[in-house]
Write a structure and sequence with these properties.
Largest sheet: 6 strands, mixed
Structural class: alpha/beta
Mean pLDDT: 94
Shape: globular
Order of helices and strands: HEHEHEHHEHHEHHHEHH
Strand content: 5-15%
Oligomer: single chain
Number of helices: 12
Distance between the termini: 47 Å
Number of strands: 6
Length: 296
Amino acid sequence: MKPKAARKLLERYRVTDGAAFRLADHDPADGGGGIVDHDELDALLADGVARLSELQGRLYAADTWSLLVVLQAMDAAGKDGTIKHVMTGVNPQGVVVTPFKQPGPEDLAHGFLWRVHAHAPAAGRIAVFNRSHYEDVLVARVHPELLDHAHLPAGLHGGKKFWRHRLEDISAFETYLVHQGTAVIKIFLHVSREEQKRRFLSRIDTPHKNWKFSAADIKERDYWDEYQTAYEQAIAATATAHAPWYVVPADNKLFAHLVVAEAMIDALSGMELEEPSPPEAECKLLAEAKARLEAE
């Protein structure tokens, strides 16, 4: 994808200041507003995956910067498919994907950010969080009874101040990561209620997709409006220039994959990565080794 078009595309979905953010202003079926020719999506994504692979190689070789991709979405929005198609060309040695499920007893005995910090990317690596620390201001906000198991002192949780503090903690955590050389981008795959219904029905009607469906998905669908509000508040409170959100239209899976790939490319390109040059002494050893091999 041409750099100018890529910048224009990302500007359309990037959120760096939540002061006026409203989720309702973002259309899940948006197709790029003429920036992208949908007949070329396959070719554009293939090109993006190739560029991503090249940049990941430089990241790994430099062994200084790292990248954290936070992937959040409603059920059936395409998180797993996005990981599969966008990360298909990268070296698996340099990427770790961590799916965050319901916290276990040890997780609940610690602060809510404890379990995610250990999975932040090491230098030179890319980490993808399939769900993340944001679940603690999304699911827990929609179902506050979950906090009864979090070992919090009586009276410490409940009310708007509690959620504001959690969101402030998340923003501070992400700022800390940035200060340590980890670029942070957060992706919200924004699917419509109608498209989610279509995908649920497809999972039910297609035998080899049955494993993807859970009755719990239908139960959570009953809380659609509550989740939309929770997402809006979370994005508004934590969107910054150094750790931006991308509200990615997800009704068209292939288009969503392209936007995510370009967001990752943009983050890596901003690092101005250069493959390290060996020190002079090592260059001398390389020259000697080459001469010896050629003399055999």
